[in-house]
Write a structure and sequence with these properties.
The protein is an alpha/beta fold. The chain has a single domain, classed as TIM Barrel (Alpha-Beta Barrel), CATH 3.20.20.70. About 40% of the residues lie in helices and about 10% in strands. The protein is built from twelve helices and eight strands. The protein has an eight-stranded parallel β-barrel with strand order 1-2-3-4-5-6-7-8, surrounded by six helices. Helix 2 links the parallel strand 2 and strand 3. Helix 8 runs antiparallel to helix 9 and helix 9 packs across helix 10. It is globular. InterPro entries: Aldolase_TIM, DapA-like. This is Dihydrodipicolinate synthase. Belongs to the DapA family.
């Protein structure tokens, strides 16, 4: 029996397909760990030259809950300047707008639009998890999407939302909203992904995986990309999986997928290990030699020496591949369809 396809019209503005990095926040080594905007500028440009199809700020990897409202705006303005200076002023920048109230999320959406973001990424509210009924959950997304000048991406990550999970029924209902365009499934639920991709075309409602270790399964199932913390460390390799697959070189893509999946295991352990990995493998390339630049913001602590060595051992499988891939150059070219 065939699946009933959605008859929703195409959305006015969709998130371009591909691999996105949820960019880490980098700090000064001062006691209050101010945002190091020069470091983040250099990192942003490196990620774009590394082939990333878009950047995400103020998500989980960006430590959004540890940043002030003013810091979030400043980071987004800095990111937009970084890509504009590279020659790709319309490059996709996604901003996390997750708040615990509808009002807060709407304010963050307005801030993000004014600061130069292109799209908004929104977690469900979770402070009183038992009170987040189906009506509350869906109403929250619809109310924020009504007020947001940016298209909204539903971010599903039960691990940081007290177990609240946007199921396929919720996402199918929310896809009906003209300003809700996609979902990021950090839940890793491939069955949910298939239910959504078999119902909606990518121009009605797009589906992205929440990491690159299942990017090929995501693409084979009808998804259009992923958002991966691994991009902070090895952007060229992670973006290349998508590029190979979309160009029809699926065997090569699968071979690279296997290596990336092993390396990404470190990112799955903790954000502290992702940030350490970025500092260890990428810091010198960016001229960032102070390990404290890559520390989590307090009260969270950097990994101990044993965890650091384990991370180096696990991630090192990608070093040769990463170093073999040439950077992209921009100015008069295009990135992901943007001029």
């Amino acid at each position: 029996m065939p699946i009933t396809k959605s008859t929703l019209p195409k959305k006015a503005k969709m998130l371009p397909p591909g691999v996105y990095t949820p960019v880490i926040s980098l700090y000064t080594s001062t006691p209050t760990q101010e945002i190091d905007h020069s470091a983040m500028y250099a990192h942003a440009q490196y990620l774009v030259r590394g082939g990333m199809h878009g950047l995400v700020y103020q998500g989980t990897n960006g430590e959004a809950v540890l940043l002030s409202r003013e810091e979030k705006k400043a980071v987004l303005r800095n990111a937009r300047k970084a890509v504009t200076d590279l020659g790709v002023p319309d490059y996709p920048i996604v901003a996390g707008i997750s708040g615990q109230s509808t009002n807060e999320s709407i304010e963050l959406a307005k801030d993000a639009e004014e600061a130069g973001a292109s799209f908004a990424l929104l977690l469900p509210p979770s402070f009183w998890a038992k009170s987040v009924t189906e009506d509350v959950l869906r109403g929250f997304y619809r109310d924020v999407a009504d007020a947001s000048g940016l298209p909204v991406i539903c971010y599903n990550f039960p691990g940081v939302t007290s177990g609240i999970d946007l199921n396929s029924d919720d996402l199918t209902a929310l896809a009906d909203h003209p300003n809700i365009i996609a979902t990021k499934l950090t839940c890793g639920n491939v069955g949910k992904l298939v239910r959504l991709t078999s119902t909606f075309s990518p121009d009605q409602f797009s589906v992205y995986g929440g990491s690159s270790d299942f990017l090929i399964p995501t693409l084979e199932a009808g998804g259009v990309g992923c958002v991966t913390g691994m991009g902070n460390v090895f952007p060229k390799s992670t973006a290349r999986i998508y590029d190979l697959w979309i160009s029809g070189k699926k065997d090569e893509a699968r071979q690279l997928q296997e290596v990336v999946a092993h390396a990404e295991w470190a990112c799955k352990k903790s954000l502290a290990l992702t940030k350490f990995g970025a500092g260890h493998f990428l810091g010198k390339k960016l001229g960032l030699t102070d390990p404290k630049t890559f520390y989590p913001r307090r009260p969270y602590a950097p990994p101990n020496e044993k965890a650091q060595q384990w991370t180096v051992d696990v991630m090192s499988v990608l070093v040769e591949e990463e170093d073999s891939i040439a950077e992209k150059s921009f100015g008069k070219g295009q990135v992901n369809g943007t001029k």
